[in-house]
Amino acid sequence: GFDDSVLICDEVDPILNKILEDNDLKISYEPEITPDQILEKISNYNIVIVRSRTTITKEMIDKADNCKIIARVGVGLDNVDQEAAKIKNIRVINAVEGAMNAVAELVLGLMLSLARQTARGDRGIRNGQWLKKELKGTELKGKYLGIIGLGNIGKRLGRLARALNMNIIGYDVVPIDEEFSKEVGLMKADLNTLLQSSDYISIHVPLLDSTYHLLDAQKMSTMKKTAKIINTSRGGVVDEDALYDALKNGTLGGAALDVFEKEPAVGTKLAELDNVILTPHIGAQTKEAQSLAANVIAEKIIQILRG
Ligand code: NAD
Q: For ligand 1, what atom is nearest to the CA of residue 78?
């Protein structure tokens, strides 16, 4: 076994604690810990684990003199200052496998909800309205789905959508997996062509300087008036003010957002609009995804400690 000390800063699947404890690691499980408390005690730990509630800042990392590993039980690493960690020689690890199917299935559900306006129909009934006439929908079959970013999640979505007989258009900054392309009959395109041709546009890129407001007012103006945007990547990738204007003015058909520039997004003006579906960052919130991510992180930590 090992005698390293571990600080777990967010709620994680109990399997993670169990595997680490079975390997004799000493765990402080503090899912409610505040940034000030982290600053105070981070120097005592060899391993720091977060999910998405906690942000590990440069200031914290500067104090983390005994830290070897920062682990994110999830995919996006934008809540860890990776530059600062690199300078201090701290390994930063994540679990890309966990969320792949969970997020792709959420997108599929959001597309179906956008096509048939199930959320609006539900709201209607709760408010005493029978909106049958207003809710004439469309079908996904035969529609064009543009996927921006064909990594783990983008590819899984492509496969699921292909099963519904959608046509898949793909854009990425790196070469796209050939086997996947053949399997789904992928039409590769540059970003502008994808935006102009798609009925649904789903974004699966990380939040980077180069992807900040990747979809802005100018880009939105080139899309079909009926196009629907689904964003389950990161809030900053879509310009929310521009999206609000386009949806309100009818120059876009609809949107489904699981991620926001500011979270929690309760009170967002997008909630005024009927052609929008909003979910509270639940992409990876499934039993299966959380337990898979916890297992992957535990295994990675143990492998690193073994050297
Ligand atoms: P991934 O790294 O496997 O794939 C990302 C892809 O985006 C890569 O192929 C990359 O080349 C591509 N890319 C990068 N910059 C691009 C650009 N400017 N234009 C086009 N493509 C670009 O990541 P993944 O596992 O598929 O996850 C994608 C993102 O989803 C994550 O970075 C994370 O932010 C987000 N995510 C959200 C949730 C949620 O709860 N909603 C859960 C997991 C992941």
A: 34
